[in-house]
Amino acid sequence: MAFGKGCHLHLIDGSAFIFRAYHALPPLTRKSDGLPIGAVSGFCNMLQRYIDGNANGSDAPTHVAVIFDKGSHTFRNDLYDQYKANRDEMPEDLRPQIPLTRRATEAFNIACKEIEGFEADDIMATLACRARDAGGRVTILSSDKDLMQLVGDGVEMLDPMKNRRIDREGVMEKFGVGPERVVDVQALAGDSVDNIPGAPGIGIKTAALLINEFGSLEDLLERADEIKQPKRRQTLIENRAQIELSKALVQLDRDMELDFTLDDLEARDPEPDTLLAFLAEMEFRTLSKRIADALHVEPPVIMDTDPGGTEVEGPADLPFAPETYECIRDMGALQGWIDRIAERGYVAFDTETTGLNEMQADLVGISLSVDPGHACYIPLTHRAGGADDLFGSDELAEGQLPLDDVLAALKPVLEDDSILKIGQNMKYDAKILARHGVTIAPIDDTMLMSYAMNAGLHGHGMDTLSERYLGHTPIPIKELIGSGKSQVTFDRVAIDDATKYAAEDADITLRLWQRFRPQLHQTQVTTVYETLERPLVPVLAGMEMAGIRVDREVLSRMSNAFAQKMAQLEDEIHGLAGEKFNVGSPAQVGEILFEKMGLEGGKKGKTGKYSTPADVLEDLATEHDLPARILDWRQVSKLKSTYTDALQDHIDPDTGRVHTSYVQTGASTGRLASTDPNLQNIPVRTEEGRRIREAFVAEPGKVLLSLDYSQIELRILAHVAGIDALKAAFREGQDIHAMTASEMFDVPMDEMTPDIRRQAKAINFGVIYGISGFGLARNLRIPRAEAQGFIDRYFERFPGIRAYMDDTVNFAKEHGFVQTLFGRKIHTPEINAKGPGAGFAKRAAINAPIQGTAADVIRRAMVRMPGAIAGLPAKMLLQVHDELLFEVEEGAADKVTRAAREIMEGAAEPAIKLDVPLIVDAGQGANWAEAH
DNA sequence: CTAATCACG
DNA sequence: GACGTACGTGATTAGC
């Protein structure tokens, strides 16, 4: 039937349906594989309800279409780059459901239309106008006010949720003008949701008033000088361009070119087979049954499969059979694997190398797996002569494919956007491959999946995961390369043995991935994994490969000076003690101090030895010289051995720089850990120690740039605990410790003394750590009762803090974990234990959301940073929990500071809008001491 | 291999 | 009422 008089077109706003469905339902997943499916389920239910309610009624439509947005960039973005710029990113678990909603629409046999680069609103506008011109009626199923400009002359809107019709009167009620003037009002009022600027200070009410007075926006702008109110007049004159731009943005395109006609949208009944097959595929049991009943057919049988579970027989329970792993020795076999990988779209991948230092280690072989129990190893640079061969040989072993040929063949796979590369600790493999010119992407990482789901419960190394989740102990690497002095590198391992070991790793990784993938959704950490873990891998790899330049001469000079000073102190100490002993032995120091000299305060540890930590020695140092000298010696010794000596050994001979490794899964709270060397604990608190930072230098012509969050944890505490006084202080840029002191001790701000402030500062930090009277007393060296008094007063003054602590501990007791603002879970398995462990767990539970949220914030900044500084001559080098260090060409330092600061200060958004500002302090200089 | 100590946030 | 406590890390050394 050709569309014309008497016809009735229904236009369904598909995107609105999807978002309603998504937000209305809990995050359901498909049971068989964990695919997120909640929005699709809700969408189908809404379509079904629509059909039940409308399609067969007395006012049934003759034509129906569901219209979707397509592409994120439309002509409106060309007009205005900030259009919809403040929209949250699409939730990660919604993204894969979008194509499924198209398929759902088609399964219901309803026309499904979208046009690249256009919003659904424009398509609906064009269709509505054409239908009206053809003499038909139109109902738009949406509550979007942007569509209200289309109402009138046979076009109505219907809010499908409230089942409320919106006609001319409805539009008048909402906008104060008729549909034909809606865009004029919108242009003036603007729209924060779509980021339409409009005229500042003018809302819908005022806009309608003005339009009604002047007749149209054009007349209003033309005769703006006639507006009586001076402020309003000025606003309209000054913002004319912006208002005109706004109108262009809200005006829907009613005359789009379409590749279909109204006639193509004729209403059709669903094909039962097609529809039920789709519903069965989605595993919608209830909906399948309801629709099957309505269509008077048998509901489909939906298998109750659960391959991720342990009870069900499935791939995960296949035995491991190392002898069946394939060793790839010719290009034909390799091509067979590549074909299978391309067909599947994913592959578990692992590299074997000659060492743990990715900057130095050489690639020895590669293993792959696409099916559980089935894996291969591609030996590349194994040496002739086995591990037992004392002489070894630098000759390559026979029967290996040339490294370059294999990499050339695998490079397209490893860089293919549509092939997922799955690894365990992929940062390592990514760095090895980067040295061969391969940028591996996209990736999944079983180590990070485990971390996102189970931080705080157990480690995330392959051996732990395999034993825990696959019930299988992998072949220990020691069986191949030995340990200690007789350890050899992997290229000395016989290829047959290497195949069993290496291919097993790929097999295990694939099995872990198959198990973890659905669990990620089930445990609701998909967003954490997708936004805070996975995208950080290439960022950290880049920082580690960049390294930081360290001046060996500076360190060497300091080492010599320290050695002299240590010898001098040692003489003094031995003289004071009256005998020679090892100053570096706490046990011997304890003997001398507490037995020979008979000093008070000697406490023995669980090994029966005296303990001589710095705070005990500090107390003794007020009375005696010996403990004071021992403290001096310890400080110098620490600086020398850990820093000026050890750091020199970490300077890479090829780059002249120090390349740390970040452990992404090291800290349960979400913080990073830095190893080999640890560059997150370079001294700064003492003048002497801080000089070590002078050895961390920029290349000639460049500067080091340090940006650090100011008081980020206290700010987060103020936000999560909802402490208005703290929030206000941060908003006003006050000295937070002084403010706390003023509140607690009733001291006016202008009479604040450094000592009172110091005590308040200790309390503020104590709060973050899960304060106790004992701990505060020890820290401030005051009687315990007095410390407890401080804490009582603090809680009295800020009752929200105690409530936060109680709530957090109760949450942990109930759920076994706590969460950061961004959804990271930190498990607290000891929280319900009794005994001293409970106290630890309790304080850890209080601290974890605060420390963890701060960690999430800087992670978000780091993930966005490469994009923000792209094109600038700058590199991000280091992260020290609340600080990022960059190396920048001198002339660009200020520009990079601005760009990086903007990213860091806005890092919580759009996911979280904090009630307090995040403030970033910046510094620059030729070395780290100057920059910090 | 573990405990003690101390560097950082 | 007593107990034992600040939160999160990594590197080095001594001493078994």
From TrEMBL:
An example Gene Ontology biological process: DNA-templated DNA replication
Segments forming domain 5'-3' exonuclease: 4-268
SUPFAM superfamilies given in the database record: 5' to 3' exonuclease, C-terminal subdomain, DNA/RNA polymerases, PIN domain-like, Ribonuclease H-like
PROSITE patterns tied to this protein: DNA_POLYMERASE_A
MF term (GO), any: 5'-3' exonuclease activity
Record key words, sorted: DNA damage, DNA repair, DNA replication, DNA-binding, DNA-directed DNA polymerase, Exonuclease, Hydrolase, Nuclease, Nucleotidyltransferase, Transferase
Gene3D superfamilies assigned: 3.30.70.370, 5' to 3' exonuclease, C-terminal subdomain (1.10.150.20), 5'-nuclease (3.40.50.1010), Ribonuclease H-like superfamily/Ribonuclease H (3.30.420.10), Taq DNA Polymerase, Chain T, domain 4 (1.20.1060.10)
Catalytic activity: DNA(n) + a 2'-deoxyribonucleoside 5'-triphosphate = DNA(n+1) + diphosphate
Family annotation (CDD domains): DNA_pol_A_pol_I_C, DNA_polA_I_Ecoli_like_exo, H3TH_53EXO, PIN_53EXO
Limits of the 3'-5' exonuclease domain: 325-521
Limits of the DNA-directed DNA polymerase family A palm domain: 689-892
Enzyme class: transferase
Enzyme Commission identifier(s): 2.7.7.7
Annotated Pfam families: 5_3_exonuc, 5_3_exonuc_N, DNA_pol_A, DNA_pol_A_exo1
Assembly and binders: Single-chain monomer with multiple functions.
Protein family membership: Belongs to the DNA polymerase type-A family.
NCBIfam families named among the record's database cross-references: pola, PRK05755.1
Role, per record: In addition to polymerase activity, this DNA polymerase exhibits 3'-5' and 5'-3' exonuclease activity.
Stored PANTHER family: DNA POLYMERASE I, DNA POLYMERASE NU
Protein name: DNA polymerase I
